[in-house]
Write a structure and sequence with these properties.
93% helix, 82 residues, 2 helices, mainly alpha
Amino acid sequence: HNRWLSALAVGLNLVFFAGAVWAAVRFHRAGTVPAQLQWGALMFVLLMMMMFTKLWFWLDMHTNRVRRELKRIELLLATRRS
C-alpha cells in the first residue's frame, strides 16, 4: 500500500541518524562554546527529526493494524450472517 513511503521514511531516518552522529563528532571536536552550541543544536534538530519520522511510521503501522482487524471483524460478521 504505502511501501515506497515507508521505505522513504526508513531512508530519511538513516540519513538523520548519520547526520546526528556527524554533528556529535563535530560537537566534541569544536574548540569554542559558540561552535559547540551550533553543532549541539544541529544534533538536537536531527534527533528530533528522527523522533518525528519514527512516530509517523509507528502511527502509520498502527493504522494499518486497525484496518486489518476491522476487515477481520467484517469478514467474521459476514460469515455468521450467511
